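Reopening: Pyrroline-5-carboxylate reductase still failing for me.
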Amino acid sequence: MIGFIGCGNMANAMINGMLKNNIKSDDIFVYDTDKSKLEIMSKNGINICKSSHDVFKKSKYIFLAIKPNVYSDVLNDVKGVIEDGSVIISMAAGFKIDSIKQIIGSKKVVRIMPNTPALVGEGFTAVCFDNLIDEKEKNTVMSLLKSFSCVVETKENYINAYSAISGSGPAFAFIFIEAMADAAVLLGIPREEAYKAAQQTLLGSSKLAMLSQKHPGELKDMVCSPGGTTIEGVRTLEEKGFRSAVIECIVNTYKKNLDINSIR
Ligand SMILES: NC(=O)C1=CN([C@@H]2O[C@H](COP(=O)(O)OP(=O)(O)OC[C@H]3O[C@@H](n4cnc5c(N)ncnc54)[C@H](O)[C@@H]3O)[C@@H](O)[C@H]2O)C=CC1
Ligand SMILES: O=C(O)[C@@H]1CCC=N1
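Support: Ran it again with your exact input. Result attached.
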């Protein structure tokens, strides 16, 4: 049985993926303090629980899909009902497995860093397992995560970097899409057409990079004719510090994860 504490963006994304991959709504138990979120879940046939305690009692795999600022309160509240066999799956930015265990004791904890494209089955999730998790539990968690994302098992040390790159990354990609569309509108293209062009261009470029397995620089060179138009745009991006802006953005996002770690 699978449980969710919190039914917001990430829980919705994950549950949608699971339902599309043959996990039965009857096997999912959820709780949220916001009743309107529970009503939406109920309409999809998901079991609604009266409390977090109820979710823990009914499920083996429990996703903590709540914001980091309520993690400590929720963990303190449920620590008495967590069984030794329960597997707690945490996704909060900047919250270490050790910090969780300091509250709930020696229980099985998995740390994941998912992202919102999971909503359309195209998520990316970095995962690390603590050493109390056995092989069968690990396989079950991996297959749950694979129902909504591409999954990479990693060291916990890297989770903060993944948080910056793939966790926060969609926000940065959406700004790029918005900026490209704004430019298109400035050039007279209707707004709807502008978004379509920008979105498909990013989607197609990602797919080409993945499927061709060519270096991104080589793919960029394939678009730039000598003395042509694209190389003029590339020159402008370099002049405006585009690469450096992206690198600084990811590094500062990573540093913020470390800051949040240090205050917990
Ligand atoms: N949104 C994103 O792109 C990503 C989010 N995360 C992490 O996922 C977690 C969830 O984020 P979102 O789904 O975006 O948040 P959200 O705000 O959409 O959902 C959180 C839900 O928790 C509920 N809630 C608040 N207090 C509660 C309590 N005491 N008991 C039960 N439910 C409670 C809220 O009503 C809300 O429905 C966070 O820890 C975040 O850091 C990780 C990677 C990406
Ligand atoms: O900003 C946040 O708290 C989360 C972590 C990764 C993406 N969003």
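The chain has two domains: 2-159, 169-262. If you still see a failure, please send the error message rather than a screenshot.
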